[in-house]
Amino acid sequence: PPPTGAPSATDLLLDGIAAHYTQGYAAGAQILRTACDQFGTGMSPENELRGLALAIMLAGQHLWDFPHLELLSDRYLELARGLGALSELPAALSLKVFCLMFAGELNAGEALSQELHAVTEATGANFGPHAALIVAAMRGRPDQVTSLIDAARSDLNQRGEGYGMATAYLTSAMANNGVGNYQAALRSASD
Known about the structure:
The structure is a single chain. The protein has helices spanning about 10-25, 25-40, 45-60, 65-80, 90-100, 105-125, 130-140, 140-160, 160-180, 180-190. With about 190 residues, the protein is mainly α.
């Protein structure tokens, strides 16, 4: 059933992605932008925390909206740390690493990636090496990307983490393309 009263920002995220697939990009994008603008307003910190990963991914992957990506990833990390939400901290750190790397802030991204590694080691969290992969790719380190993929492939496949493998192949293509290994980049992009 539709919500009673005005839809929340989370409702708008879902409405926006649904509109994207049923009415086209323009219709969905308009709703998603409104959701990103409103995200967090009138929400408890716990509810905001629950929806931020989706908001960040939609802002980045569907809208290519860097200002919202940056704002929302900052807020996600702030809430995860502030609330002591250890189960959310790896995702918040990883998404912030992606944001920093795409902004060209390689040193800051690498530092957060190292923090993410320390958090997952300390908590025993089983989290794919997404952040380390993007750092290695943006630094032009195809051998490091390959090592990370080889170390994580079995675990990612066993968990059915298709996003993790897609990230692995994308970062391999990026790293190889960046150092002029175009055939290797093409193979990775084709996987």
